[in-house]
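ok trying again, last paste got cut off:
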Amino acid sequence: MHQLSFFQELKTKSPPVRRYFSHNGVCSDEARQALEKQYAPLLVETGKFNRQLVSFQANKTEILHGWFKYREGFSAELVELLFDELQIQPADTILDPFAGSATTLLAAQLHGMNGVGIELLPHCHLAWQAKSAVFDYNLDELRQVRSLVEESSPPPVAEPFPHLTITESAFPPQVEADLMAYTRWFEKLDVGPRTKMLCRFILMSLLEDVSYTRKDGQYLRWDRRAEKIRRHNEKRQAQGKKPIRGIDKGAIPTVKQTFLERLSKIIVDVSRLQAEQKRPESGRQELIEGSTLYILPTLPADSFDAVITSPPYANRYDYTRTYALELAYLGIDDKIFNLRQNQLSCTVENKSKENDLRAFYHSMGQGQQFERILTIVGTNEVLAEINAALATRYERGEVNNRGILTMIAQYFLELTFVFAELYRVCRRGARVAVVNDNVRYAGEIIPVDTLSTALAEQVGFAPKKIYVLPQRKGNSSQQMGRFGREPLRKSITIWQKV
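nice, full thing came through this time. structure:
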């Protein structure tokens, strides 16, 4: 196994060790302080990374990777850096248990590497299907579709957009009618199945642009022109309340205009990739649909040489709400609740999965593994301190939603199950890179990077480095107003199975 270089060629420095974790010392933070000192030698601030690389920002203009705005993902450039710096070889097999829009798998594909991803959300699977077929598209067919859309329009259909409750009135009426007309038109075109799939993907990818909504962290922001907002404001005014301002997205583009812009970019990307890069002769990639909590335990042991991933952050973002338009378009309807509950617990609506996981592990004859993981979590002093601190803050009226307490407790419980299964499925010598954010609730800082590293070490991994971005993340306005501003680390933790 290769020696890890860990970016030694760059100028690095040790970031300052945090001295307190509880605002005004309201709660005990001795365990968190001890953890900070324990892993201080591993904390390295490096200019190798920036916030663009560990987010979607750097993918926006990238060939292939920029086809779908998956804001919660990391960039292809970050994956490339980790390939080089962790010395991942072409014959290696890479795993991403939180694959998102499959940036890791796409990078593996372009390098001829083997890759396996796990992803729960259906719109990410359609994005993977569309992008991974880049070497298989018939450019003549794509240009034929573009000409057809430029020169004619689809016949109208009576079918409504398959809205979820939270997406009702998201589109101007004509836009909604056009979305369904184009959807059915493309299904009947005399083109191959890949071209039809790509057309469906493009329509899904443009939904936000042609809607009265804008993705914004935990939810969708709404334009004041949406019927939902108008009705709500009528009720507020009748009650003597001020109307909700809403956002102003300006002129909403047409489906035709936006589709042609997207398709034209894709044609340019496909032409360039097919001309400049031959189809990789080696490497196989697979994206498995489902929850990583239940898929990972079914994968064979000692199968992977590296892991590059970024789990959902413990920041209350609910992807089933953020991507509600995309999920609605794909016909999720009554499955939305199950999707929401099967996510890693990162929202206040998530319920405990402990009993379900217990039953699942026992059904596989892995009851001892379940109890071992549960004991690791139950005896972790830092997690116990965090849970107690949040309970105290809640009793003081400083936590605005009790679901935050459950979310944090379940988040680290579930992550520990993921870490334990990653250890099992990794080969000896395998390297693991995990991107995550530290968070803060009610003045209590939760050191996700060092706590995750401690839990990973307890399941068997050897911690190697915790790379810290020079730029720190700020707090929400509510946090700053009540508890002051505390810049938080965004980190890439590196572990190894030795």
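cool. Residues 403-425 form the longest helix (23 residues). The chain has two domains: 15-120+287-319+338-496, 139-275.
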